Amino acid sequence: MSIAFNKKEFSFIRLSFIISTVICLVKFAAYFVTNSLLILSDALESIINVAASAFAWYSIYLSNKPRDTEHPYGHGKIEFFSIGFEGAMILIAGFGILLQAILFFFHPTTVHQLGAGAWLTAATGLANFLLGYFLVQKGKQLNNLTLKGNGRHILSDSYTSIAVVAAIVLILFTGYTWIDPLASAIAAAFIIYTGFKLMNKSVRGLMDEVDMKIVDELVSILKQHRQPAWIDLHNLRVQRYGQFYHVDCHVTMPYYYSLDQVHAEITAMDQLLNKQFNKGSIEFFIHTDPCIESSCEHCLLADCTVRRKPFVQKIEWSRENLLPNKKHQFVD
Question: I need a surface site. Which of 85, 249, 280, 324 has the fewest CB within 10 A?
Fold first, then answer.
């Protein structure tokens, strides 16, 4: 199963790169006009926006390439590298800004024309907010981690710009220039927190941490459309590769079913999830187990001619009993 190239994702991240570059240039112009450390901090973060957008651009291109013999599960894992790279860049920017704020107290500089700097910063902040919100929404619609990660980073930059404008206005009203490095240090702390969050998400994805929301959605679909021949299901595992989900599990079926019948049931289950699941394509690797004597107590096949024990209780499927590698497990 190949992954179709999504031109929308590519065009959205290209737009992000272009707009981020323009915004970065405007912020540096504001710094040269004002000589404000706070505005410089904002401009430095925008450099990271440009670098992250460029990496995200390549990431989306690569993640949409079809799988090949060297990458049998596709190239979707690059999305987690992308947000990890973005998180690392944000951390570098945050610590760099914090260092500049500390150095200011030892080597203070004179700021000027803060009014002009405030207007330029406000304009770039608004542009970043609109761009970030747009990317996050499109990322949710397309279920694309790279777009959402890039959008959230740009949104955090817009919040920083709001804080910058507020601090500049405060300096203009009070004349206290020490507000400049103090506000810069506070902004750096927020930036560092954002970077750690993205790095954490990247590590979880690269370690194939289970997304329980996805598991619950798959379990819900299976429960709603459960067939009598699907006696039980366990050892369910879900891994994400971009828009592609690899799902494997064990399904207990009647031992007397022919290979054709088993194949038909597995195909029906595969088609069901791919039709009902709207967050990406699913590829199944399903291991079938033959039913055993204890299975009769939970088997829903009313016309079974080889039943050895009467039906006792249906096993209600949930993540608690589908994820473990244990057959016919009840959950209290």
Answer: 324
